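Summary for the lay section of the report: proteins are chains of building blocks that fold into shapes. Here we show the chain for Amidohydrolase and then a coded description of the shape we predicted for it.
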Amino acid sequence: MTLRIDAHQHFWRIASRDGYWPPHTLDAIYRDFGAQDLEPILARSNIQRTVLVQSLPTPEDTRYLLDIACASSVVAAVVGWVDLKSAGASASLATLARQPKFRGVRPMLQDLEDDRWIDDAMVEPAVEAMLEHDLSFDALVTPRHLHALLAFARRYPRLRIVIDHAAKPPIVSSQSEPWRVAMSRLAELPNVHCKLSGLWTEAGPHPDLTLVEPYVRAVCEWFGASRLMWGSDWPVSRLASHFGGYGDWLAWCEQCCDRFLGPEAHASVFGGNACHFYRIDHPSDDRQFQ
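The coded shape description reads as follows.
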């Protein structure tokens, strides 16, 4: 039996986020979130493993997540943060790679002023270290970053890259043509994958799923069953509670998968692709998941 995996979720402590998102005005997520909050939700949704993704650009946050992962049987992989342009990036990556569940890096490109930050030769030593240690790259981007990401992905064809939240398409404004052009070009590269995550949050306050569906259809068509992976983006997903909760997002994505890829794609999109991308070991005894 293939593991069902949530390929994108977060934990955080509000006390460590002074000056960082989320602001106190976002009541739904302005509190601590840990494994004890998520595990009952996973059990109800028949999700066995998760990929825990950084949400602060600090080494301390990455260490915090690795500590959680070491104590958790549910967290299968950690995507942390390293300043890829720092002189010590290669050494930091080598150290982190020795942690049993460290699987990749996510620079928070969406928050950087320079849209082309990643398209820079200064990151080459860090990328070479990532390749040496078989680490992946999570791209937290918006449409304005996609041209730089395309250049980066072409420069490093051996680097596994996944685009978080389908690059946060402009669902509310419907000005999607630049996003469509850039994403379709990225999908032509075999090292580029996409997360089916975060789209309800991007859809604004009005619960109209017909606005979201064309974007899901598009990434299904571009990336197919072999390079698309489902993620909840929990607890950020709580900001879209007007659409529904964790299980509702999962069920809706499963329905979309049925329509746009076929039921045979479920095992890949909802687990198998994340296993491969993040090098997640399957338990030797599957019976506990049946």
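Put simply, here is one thing we learned. The longest helix spans residues 246-260.
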